[in-house]
Amino acid sequence: MMIFWLVAVLLIVSMLLFLLPPLIKGHAGESDILARDELNLAIFKDQINELKADQAVGVLTSQQYDVARQDLERDFLHDSGDDGGEVVGQTDRIIGRAAAAVIVVLLPIMAVNLYGLLGAGAAGLDPDSAKPEMQAEGHQGSLDEQIVQLREHLQNTPEDAEGWLMLARSYHFMKDYSNADGAYERAAALIQDPDPNFLADWADTAAMAQGRQMTGKPYELVKRALSLQPSHQKALWLAGTAAFEGKDYRASLEYWQRLAAQFPEGSENHAQMQRNIGEIKELLGSSVETQTAAAQAPPAAGGVTLHGVVRLSDELKGRVSPEQTVFVYARAPSGPRMPLAIVRKQVKDLPLTFTLDDSTAMTPAMKLSAFPQVVVGARVSLSGNAVLQSGDMETVMGPLEVSSAGELELVIDSIVP
């Protein structure tokens, strides 16, 4: 408050210092008048000398000389600083000083009144006293307090669908996904025809409530959203993720291709979707060479199993959250990067003891037992999907001989650039 008034006073004083000096001094001081009279006298003398020179050489007759001299004398008397000039100068100074006095009084008063009328009003002149009123009109208190007030309101008016929707979004913002899911459930019971935005948001919250898993209820919700609006971007993304989690790669590819078509080429969103689509295509198909190698490889007696432990380096522990996804996988050293076996867990499960074998294969055509050598890796996925992205954390080991790999230890210690 003190700073506001200090700045205001300095601005007013600066304006007064700019306006007052010319008014107080007047249009011309005594020294200005004296200097002007001296200049007029010098000019008058020069003009008289010129007339005399013209008369001496015969340019002017005596009568012409007298007439011209009288004109010069009359002009000189008119321009000289006589008593009338002094009266005018004094009058100007009196008027200027009176105007200065009026400005000194009126300028601050007008500035304050205009600010109160056109500016922030009373809140601007006294921000501290206006704070309670402003908070009452806006969002008073913390978000926790607002949620409590909203819940009390809904206890009295449980049929308020908008209130339940607002409560659901508030819980989601606070990362209380379980309560948010319940609030969406109550809102859905009151809304006759939920729109695609509502269904997609609810699906997102429901997935978060069950550990970022899109299977089951979240997937059904996004399908309902897409039945109402087939091009809904958030629903397409969630549906593609749900299909990917369920290893229905063809459905995931279809969803993400429909989504990619909505983004302009060259945009970051389009590039990201193309990376996702490329990964899905690798998962769906394999090269002829790899299929041939898999068919010719001798079957392993009793099957093939890779065992080991995955943990996170101490340097990276502070950069992850417990619910983030962890992939442990084995893939062929060359050819498609599609995993031969993969296990999906979460950061909270680390350190993790893993087992990779044919039961964890992604497709019957590509099994761990068909390859004598593999590359084994572990990765923390920030996005929750299998597409490698900048910022993911990983470790890779190999190629390893499957038959003699022994107990493996994977330490996730690097960040994907």
How would you summarize this macromolecular structure in one to three sentences?
With about 425 residues, the protein is of the alpha+beta class.
Question: Any overview of this molecule?
Answer:
- This protein has helices at 2-25, 30-56, 62-79, 83-118, 122-125, 127-137, 143-156, 161-173, 177-190, 196-209, 217-228, 233-245, 249-260, 268-284, 288-296; strands at residues 306-312, 325-331, 339-346, 352-356, 373-381, 393-401, 407-412, 414-415.
- The chain has 417 residues and is α+β, with helices and mostly antiparallel strands.
- It has three domains: 2-127, no CATH class; 143-283, Serine Threonine Protein Phosphatase 5, Tetratricopeptide repeat (Alpha Horseshoe); 301-415, Immunoglobulin-like, CATH 2.60.40.
- The strands form two sheets. It has a five-stranded antiparallel sheet, with no helix packed on it. A three-stranded mixed sheet has the order 4-1-7, with no helix packed on it.
- The longest helix is centred in the N-terminal third of the chain and has 36 residues, at 83-118.
- It is elongated, with a radius of gyration of 44 Å.
- The two termini are 49 Å apart.
- Mean pLDDT is 76; it is low at 82-88, 127-140 and 286-302.
